[in-house]
Amino acid sequence: MIVLAGDVGGTNTRLQLTECKDKKSKVLFAKKYLAVDFKSLSAIIEKFLAESAIDKALIKAACIAVAGPVKNGAIEFTNLPWGLTETELAEVLTLDISKVKLINDFASIGYGLDSIETKDLVCLQQAPIDQNAPVAMVGAGTGIGMGIVTKHDNKTFVYPSEGGHQDFAPVDDEQIGLFQFLKKKLHRVSIERICCGPGLVNIYKYVVANPLYNQPESPELRRDMHKGGDQAQLITQYAVEKGDPMSLRAVDIFIRVYGAVAGNMALATLPKRGLYIVGGIAPKLIKQMQDGRFMKNFHDKGRMTGLMKEIPVFVVMDTDVGIKGASAFALSLCEK
Predict the structure, then answer these.
(1) Percent of the residues in the chain that have a pLDDT greater than 90, as a whole number
(2) Is 120 within any annotated ligand binding site?
(3) 9 annotated to bind ligand
(4) Is 11 marked as a binding-site residue?
(5) Does 8 show up as a binding residue in the annotation?
(6) Alpha helices, DSSP H only, in the chain?
(7) Beta pairing, strands 144-152 & 135-140
(8) In which residues is ATP bound (predicted)?
(9) C-beta of residue 327 within 8 angstroms of C-beta of residue 16
(10) Is 300 helix (H, G, I), strand (E, B) or coil?
(11) Which residues fall within 8 angstroms of residue 274, CB to CB, at 6 or more apart?
(12) Residue 192 gets which letter from DSSP?
């Protein structure tokens, strides 16, 4: 049987056709599209199906993971101007409504965790794994997502969260300055205003505007950012590859906030089966994630610091885990 899986983020849409035969899965066709180039997700799916040259009638189920909350089988994307319903998806694929599902993107990652190979994990903190405890996920990309995974009777249960929209809690004078800088422009400063790709850009703007840093902005980076494109990627590149002081400072603040946010998630859920750092940013900053700053801020919870050292922490380097989870969920729809 063949199923369609998708992973729709704020920047890219990834689609994949997977065939399952004798309990073994094989990817038949996969492609990534820039979301803003299309007027709807249905248009992306139709283009993908045309390019795949696979008969649509062979597709038996579909699961699309989306960046945002799914309500009554519908999604309005947080970072995109269009939405989708399960009814529309069923019509595009000529499937019964029971064979299509929209799920939160962090839910799809939860369903895909079992597919992660050891080589695709970087351990930031070793600790005994309690198989009866929950797993927690935190992941910064275009936005920041959070979720919890539990198991019961060998079945996986995933609980997505919109915890990225919690209030940002600054922990030192520098972060208080960042909060005040953003508060002048925003009604409310949430975690997602800081701890994601666009958030890194916000941090960089704060650093550049702050005379206390006493460093000139790179004219080359300023020129490249004005050209358009992924500004967070440019800041990361200038920090990691060129050692640009202002970019390095922005990344430092980002890493420390990210560690504190992950620590807060761990405090709230006690994920002694593992806390997984997912999303597209961590793999690009893996050396910075490993140098101690992230875990120092993860641990820094006052009287609970000892407890924080009992939680296994991993970075997931496999950026395909979300679409693998969506594929696994689609295959489960065929079994119903």
Answers:
(1) 77
(2) no
(3) yes
(4) yes
(5) yes
(6) 41-52, 86-93, 105-112, 173-183, 197-209, 219-226, 231-240, 245-269, 281-284, 286-290, 293-299, 305-308, 321-334
(7) antiparallel
(8) 6-11
(9) yes
(10) coil
(11) 129, 135, 136, 311, 312, 313, 314
(12) G
197 or 154: which leads in pLDDT? 197
Residue 237 sits at φ, ψ, to 5 deg, of -65, -45
**Residue 91 is encoded by which pair of tokens?**
């019509």
The one-letter amino acid at 149: V
Q: Report the predicted TM-score, pTM, of the whole model to 2 decimal places.
A: 0.87
What angle (nearest 5°) sits at the alpha carbon of residue 148, between those of residues 154 and 187? 165
- The Cα 104–Cα 66 span in angstroms is 5
Query: Rounded to an integer, what distance in angstroms lies between the CA atom of residue 15 and that of residue 255?
Result: 30
Per-residue confidence band for 68, with pLDDT thresholds at 50, 70 and 90: confident
Q: Render pLDDT for 319-328 as a digit per residue (tens, 0 to 9).
A: 889 999 999 9
To the question of whether residue 10 is assigned a binding role by annotation, the answer is: yes
**Terminal CA-to-CA distance of the chain, rounded, Å?**
14
3-state secondary structure 80-119: CCCEEEHHHHHHHHCCCHHHEEEEEHHHHHHHHHHHCCHH
Q: Is residue 118 annotated as involved in ligand binding?
A: no
Q: How confident is the model at residue 299 (pLDDT cuts 50, 70, 90)?
A: very high
User: Both tokens of residue 81?
Assistant: 């101007």
The distance from CA 268 to its chain's CA centroid, rounded to whole angstroms, is: 19
